[in-house]
Amino acid sequence: MRRPPILKIHEIFASLQGEGLRQGEPTLFIRLTGCNLRCAFCDTRHAWDQGEDQTVEQIVDRVLCLRRDFPSEWVCLTGGEPLLQDIGGLLQALTQALLKIQVETNATRPPVFPVDWYTVSPKPPDYDLLPGLTEVARELKLVVSSDLTADTCLRLARRFPAETPLILQPESNQDWSIQKGQVLLRKVLASGKTNVRLSMQLHKIIDMP
Ligand code: SF4
What we know:
With about 210 residues, the chain is an alpha/beta fold. Helices cover about 25% and strands about 25% of the residues.
């Protein structure tokens, strides 16, 4: 007998999208366990290895249960790195439940499934970016860490279509990072890339998960 698809899930919760162009929109989050990177600034280290195996049916049941009290149009697969696991069956089930789907990825795995919104966020030190992601991304999001330079912002942004916005995301809303984000934004603007935004982590400001 064929085993049902099993995914390792860290948590499923309702909140507002705290980052990027969709900031402020009610969203149901599925945080998948596991990441192939180890960023120094990672604020979801707990998702690197902690989680429990769940079937697609269990995951979707939980999402729909949350949606009864928090009727969001959107579900966001995040991590960790969600593209490390075989999420095809889950995406199909979420689509059948008429949810719009966002996937947040660190850009090291190919976008094997079409979704409504890919947030592509390459990470230091190498800022690897698989080519297939540049065409499907709805936004390029870069954490304003100590590594990030204006040259890196521009080098990466040039690989995307001009209409893809660049989001500068200060690391954990820290003052030094917000100030650095403003400096980077001015440099990027001065270079002619005007489709750029500075974004604070809203969920941390309003103390939501
Ligand atoms: S890619 Fe994301 S989840 Fe993975 S270590 Fe970096 S910040 Fe953390």
